[in-house]
Amino acid sequence: MEFFVAFQRHAPLGHAFFRTVKDENSLKRLWDTQLQHFVKRRFRFDDATLKDVEALWGTCISSVEALAVAEAPLVEGSAEPAVQPGAAQTAPAPEA
Questions:
Q1: Domain presence at residue 42
Q2: Which has more pLDDT, 75 or 50?
Q3: End-to-end distance of the chain based on CA atoms, in angstroms?
Q4: Neighbours of 39 (CB within 10 A)
Q5: Which residues neighbour 53 within 8 Å (Cβ) at sequence distance 6 or greater?
Q6: How far, in Å, CA of 52 to CA of 69, rounded?
Q7: Torsion sign (Cα): 4, 6, 8, 11
Q8: 9 φ, ψ to 5°?
Q9: Residue 25 within any structural domain of the chain
Q10: How many angstroms separate the CA atoms of 38 and 31, rounded?
Q11: Beta-ladder partners of 74
């Protein structure tokens, strides 16, 4: 939410862009496939604003990754999360 609000100071962007964001991977996919291209095109002659928006994105994704680590279940007997942030999560294999 903070990224969206801060981004509005640089360029108006509708909330509908974020309607499919459900988790960290879908947020990264939105940036990679839509927002990054929009930002680069919009600020192609304004390096300072481009760097500001990219820094906002960096802060946003760092916060999301930190939150994912904090909420990840721990491996039994360890302080390590069971799933690393950004790692693909798969469903367990069905028992035979």
A1: yes
A2: 50
A3: 44
A4: 21
A5: 7, 10, 11, 39, 43
A6: 26
A7: negative
A8: -70, -25
A9: yes
A10: 9
A11: 81
> What domain range is 49 assigned to?
2-71
* pLDDT given for residue 84 in this prediction: 56
Domains identified in the chain, total number? 1
Domain membership of residue 93 (yes or no) is: no
Question: Do 48 and 57 form a contact (C-beta atoms < 8 A)?
Answer: no
Q: CA-to-CA distance for 31 and 72, rounded, in angstroms?
A: 23
Cα–Cα nearest to 8, from 17, 58, 45: 17
Q: What would the pLDDT profile of 40-52 be if each residue is shown by its tens digit?
A: 999 999 999 999 9
Tokens of 75: 């491996």
Prediction pTM value: 0.62
- Residue 84 is classified by DSSP as -
CB atoms closer than 10 angstroms to residue 27 = 19
Q: Is the dihedral of CA 6, 12, 13, 15 positive or negative?
A: positive
46 domain residue, yes or no: yes
Task: Return the bridge partners of 81, or none.
Answer: 74
Residue with tokens 């969206």: 4
